[in-house]
Amino acid sequence: MSEEANDTKAPEKAEYKVDLDVFEGPLDLLLYLVRKDEVDICDISIERITSQYMEYLEMMRMLDLDVAGEFIVMASSLMLIKSRTLLPVESRPGEEEDEEEDDPRMELVRQLVEYKKFKDASMSLGAKEFAQSDRYLFGGEVALSDADQTAPRLADIGLFDLLGAFQEALKRAPVMPLGQLKPIIWSVPEKMHLIEEALPEHPGGMPFSRLFAPDSPRGEVIVSFLALLELLKRHRVAVRQNEPFAEILVCQPPPGTVIEGGDDYEVSDA
Amino acid sequence: MPESDPMQPVASSLTQVVGALIFSSPVPIDADAIRKCLKDMPDAEDGTKPPFRGVSVREVQSAILDIQQDLERLGLGVALEEVAGGYRFQTQAGCGRWVRALLKKDKPALLSRPSLETLAIIAYRQPVARSEIEGIRGVAVDHSVRQLMELHLVRIVGRSDLPGRPFLYGTTPLFLEHFGLKDLAELKEIDPTLGRRESKPPELPLASSGASSDAVPEAEVEGPKVEDPKVEETKSDDPMIERSDD
Description:
The complex is a heterodimer. By secondary structure, chain A is mainly alpha-helical. Chain A has nine helices and three strands, in the order H-H-H-H-H-H-H-H-E-H-E-E. In chain A, a hairpin with a 6-residue loop joins strand 2 and strand 3. Chain A folds into two domains: 15-87 and 101-147, no CATH class; 150-270, Arc Repressor Mutant, subunit A. Chain A has a three-stranded antiparallel sheet, covered by helices on one side. In chain A, helix 2 (26-37) packs across helix 3 (46-62) and helix 3 (46-62) runs antiparallel to helix 4 (69-86). Chain B is α+β, with helices and mostly antiparallel strands. In chain B, helix 1 packs across helix 3 and helix 2 (31-39) packs across helix 3 (57-74). In chain B, strand 1 and strand 2 (86-91) form a beta hairpin. The interface between A and B is large, with 56 and 60 residues.
């Protein structure tokens, strides 16, 4: 980071955006919601999934995540499908077999199914890549080509798993009564520091819920979560989950994956 | 250049020679190339014919199999693997941490999940335009495509007939090496339903050589679908050199 950039940044600047490029898109969110509900993709309730989707979108806005346009586009498609399902279906006798075709959900379902297949295939490729990363060639080169140096691979945890955990924490956080405004006393860099300091005390991984005191106000929960995202992005921490939808554990990154050096807790986003 | 130093011992078994060739080849080498090398050996200066000149590909393959089985049986920490249509020696899985300690190397970085998804779509659907990838993933993929090209895992293999004649992307031989795949047909073992239905199955003649080619955005290939991606292999960008700089 250049000095000039440091100068222009007000120290108490609250503006903070996490770049979602390295994370996932709207289809990932939908798949996540379907999986969370344990329903068959072909059997999704548009009403339910739309409201869940909007909840997550709202949460991302609250976090000031840089919500990509695609998320908004998907939101409007969901609304459209929902409105079409609400319209009375013109009953044309003798065309019963077209019911499937007319289902406004079909296009979305088809897209989700196809995407899921590619996603699964990419996971298999990822497993092969991981296996190759432990093997070396004559002369000490690793059997991989030089891979991505910037984006985290969050094992089997995606952004939406994290957001789900965040939502839980937020539900517990007391809403501050109006008229009792307090100055903002938490900063992302400070929280990053605290998280990293706390990690060695939990060799097996620190449960996500321990990031916040049980009665942390919402503001603090939000700042802590942003700090966690930033640490993940910088590979300074890793997250794992022992089984789907179990508590997320924050742990120290495997040795060697720390790529952004220094003890710089400044927010990298200018 | 005939070699006939009387002091130099001569290999007595085909397995020895095959092993030596694979060991010293800078890129994965296939049985055909090994047989060709043996066949093209010139006579020695004293007129004697070098041994193994007349061996068949089948014999070479059986020698390779012998080496693979022997290594496996003896557990020497090294295995002979088929990648990207050729053979090369690799350390066995499970030894990585010690190798890294010796070489003072970090764990290699892996592709991010979004990049892996983009790559999987390109691998199964190649030649594929960016719009199709975006249609499947539901997000903009410029970033990950660019990154995959920089890593030489993906290259431009032609242009589509669609309006604006967008580039079509395909995987490189380095892609196979990176994932330890024999060939693109191996992708079908992961999911047989993902290939393109109308026309081509994913086995394109891309694994034709061990060397990777550079994907040059300016490179233009006429025609809607490139039948022979070798046309693109213009730059002499050696993947081995590429990968050795840390």
